[in-house]
Structures are given as C-alpha cells and as structure tokens.
Amino acid sequence: MEQKTTVISEAALARQQSFLALIRQYWQSRGVTPAAFVDTYGCQQNEADSERIRGMLAQAGYGFLPSAEGAELVVINTCAIREHAEQRVLGNVGALVHVKRRHPEQKIFLCGCMMGEPHVVERIRTSYRHVDGVFSPHHLWAFPEQLYGILSGGARSFVTEDVPGSIAEGIAQLRDNPKKAWVSVMYGCNNFCSYCIVPYVRGRERSRRPEDILAEVRALISGGCRDITLLGQNVNSYGKGLDAPIDFSDLLAQVAELPGDFLVRFMTSHPKDATRKLFDVMASHEKIAKHIHLPFQSGNDRVLAAMNRGYTAAQYRALVDYARSVMPDLVLTSDVIVGFPGETTAEFEDTLKLMEAVRYDALFTFLFSPRSGTPAATMPDPVSKEEKQQNFDRLVARQNEISAALRRQDVGKTLRCLIDGRDGELLTARTAGGRLVRLPGEDALIGEYCSIFITDANTWSLLGTVAE
Ligand code: SF4
Question: pTM of the full predicted structure?
Fold first, then answer.
C-alpha cells in the first residue's frame, strides 16, 4: 500500500511560528505566565512528540507543571498499542472533568495514536465534552494554530483527517535530559504485523532526509548531548523513497563519524530488515553502542507466519549468530508475545528454546491481548487463559534467571558508563549496552562518562563505584 509523504513547507511552518507569537501576546496582554501539563503514554516516539509539543509551548511562553492542577493547558499524548491501556487513558481523561471544574479556563487537548482511531475520536466528541481539542499524529505540526483558535474563542476542534504521512522539520524540542536525546529518523510502519495497530494510526513509512538528521545530531553534540538514540518503528527500512540512495547502515555510519564524545544507538530493528551490513557497521565504529533491541516475538514458525513477521526462527538465529560473530560483547534485548491466538504450549516451547539459545540481556514480555482493528483480534483462540498465564509465568521466571546470570558476569569489571540521573540515595548510570548501574556519588557527575567498577549485581541492575 503506497502512501505519499507530504513534507510540510517552510511557509506552512513559518505560519505556525506566527501563531506561537500570537499565543504569547494573548497571555502577555492578560498579564499571565501560562503553565502547561503534558502527559505522555506509550513509546519513545510519543516521548519525542511530547518534546516537540513542549518545545512549541515553551516558544509561546508556557512553563510546565507536573500535574493538571492549576494548568492553563493540559495535553494528553495517548498510546493505542494495548486496549486496556486505552481504557486507562480514557479513565484519566474522564477524571479531568473535576480538575476543569476548579479551573474553568483550562483547555484540554488529546493527541497521539488513539486520536488516529476514528471510533475513539467519536467517543471523545460525544462523551468527553470537557475536551477542547484533538489532533492525530499527522497534524502535530499545526498544533499552534489549533491552540490559538481555541484560546481566541473558537469552537471545539478535531483535526484528525487521514492525510498522507507528513514530515515537519525544524520544530523546537524541549528535551527532558540535555545529555540524552531521541532523534526520529523515520515515522510510520509498512509491516502490518497482524497484532499491531501502529500502521493504521501512524501511517506508512517515511524517512527524514539524512542532511536534516545529521544537522540535528550535530547541534545536539555541540550542545553537550552524550547519548543519542535514532528512532523509528522499523529503522532498518530507513531510506526507502528518499532521492539519495541511502540505507540505515549508511546513516548510522555517518552519525558515528561525527566528531565529539558520544554514543549512538537505535531502536527498533525489525529482524526481517536487519542486514549483515548493519552489524558490520556497528562492529567497526566505536561510537555505536554494542546493543541491539531485536524483537523476535515468537520462536515458532507457524506463529511467526500468523503474526506476519516475515522471518523464521532459524533466520532469526542466523542473524544473531552473525551479529555475535562480529561483536562478541553485543548486548541483545527483545520483545516476545506469549499466548498469540491459537499458540499451543508445544509451540510456546519453541519460544522458550529460542530464548534459551540466545540468552537475552532483558526481555519485554507481553501476554497477548487482542487489539480491535487488527487481524489478530478476530483469529480463533481456543487456548485457555490459565494455560497462557502459566506459559507466560514460566518464561518470565526463566528470563529473570538469565538476566541475573548475565549481570553477575559484570561483577569485577570496570565499565565505561554515562551517569544519567539520581534515584534516591544513589546515582544511576547506563553501560554502553544499556544495563542500569547504581552507584554512590555527587550530582556533579550527572551527564559525564565515568569508568565504574562493578561490585555487585541483581536481576535488573548492577551496583558500582566510580573507578577514576
Ligand atoms: S514492525 Fe510490526 S509490530 Fe512493529 S510497528 Fe510495524 S506493524 Fe507494529
């Protein structure tokens, strides 16, 4: 299914800048410094989108609050990946009616993937009358105009037309952490895995131009950023449809060759599109983190075919074997779904076998739950909930043992880590492979690379001390 990409013109983006200036004037004329609460659900793509929303709002003069209470503006950036998460979002949006009663001038906007689902938008329109505005991911760039329309007395507004996927360059981002950054390299997905809603709500794949990505990364590095994650639903198909012939490995190499003290990583990789060339590039560049998140989802070929994943378990294993042959210290993480419709316990055993063979550093484990609007939601599913739960518990217990054993191997080593924050008494840091390390130390170390001597380990994290 081909879908044209619209690159939003400079003139259209300049027009949005003028609405940001009008919003600023609106608040200045009232003598108010407005505050916003931006709440984000879901994946890193949503985190990156929320950074853009905050970037635009900061330009319009908004400060930020940690909750909706007292905020002039509330923006809820929603996630559609799981049905029960959707219910939670709707519950929280419903509860905002009480907050708004205390602050009648408050404006409430909803955006993100749920707003790409027409039945959800309809429900908001009819049953959530306290919501002032809704925009789907394709229309994020035009949020300033929509917000100004509402502030200046316009009617509730729903900007959700299913337009061709768009790319808007140059929107300011207000990043949570100046030392770590997400950089979107592409948007959307073409794969239509049978359980996934993403291609329906985020549109088809479209890649940013390499020169725009490199300019963004250069600016981040010169601003002191140390850890950069290139982001896309399926980064390995980057480059399709661009004028210049380029694939993701080429882009990754170009980023890694930029001057500066930083590490670059990426997510997510689809095994169907990951190539030996990608692993060769990773192996040959010091600045590329030796970590890959490579979702396998199932170790059984019938289930993989029913998921429409496009590879077999043997092909996946061969890919991992090659990657480890060129990067013996590679850290592998993955996603797995247990209880896909019709998955028997015998088929589940293949998933356990693959997991045992690969020995992942960490696994994101999901017990299948049907997502309406996807083919998997209507597949026959005779396997009982109890059986699925038992299989799921077995898998989680075994993975915890493997994770703990792999972390214990780090005890006694000295690892170079980026110290990225504080959690209570201890600083937190990440190894190049993404493992969490806790250590005593001063806040002045946050944002620095340090050699850390690892003194102890548990299932999820390492303990250490600064070695230099
Ligand atoms: S690759 Fe599959 S699981 Fe990932 S976003 Fe695309 S359709 Fe969804």
Answer: 0.88
